[in-house]
Amino acid sequence: MKSKILALSKNEEFKSLLKKKKISNKYVTIFFGKLPHKDNKSLNISFSVKKKLEMQLKEIKLKEG
What is the pTM of this model? Predict the structure, then answer.
């Protein structure tokens, strides 16, 4: 099965996705669900990373590059 990655095109799409199902741990929160005005075959997913982890990843990237 071939999958395409498409970005959410509007702020309203992201906000409506926040009201759907979510899974979270201490590092990341994943929001997912189907949006009514989008293709019903697609599952929309959004990742939200904690600020502390984001800063650590930036530091690691600076050290490597």
Answer: 0.60
**What is the pLDDT of the chain when averaged over all its residues?**
79
Task: Classify residue 23 as left (phi > 0), alpha (psi -120 to 50) or beta.
Answer: beta
- Calculate ∠ Cα 27-31-32, nearest 5°: 140
Q: What share of the chain is helix, strand, coil (3-state, %, to 5)?
A: 35, 25, 40
Distance CA 38, CA 28 (A): 25
- How is residue 36 annotated by DSSP? T
Q: Tokens 């929001």 correspond to what residue?
A: 31
CB proximity list for 40: less than 8 A, separation 6 or greater: 34
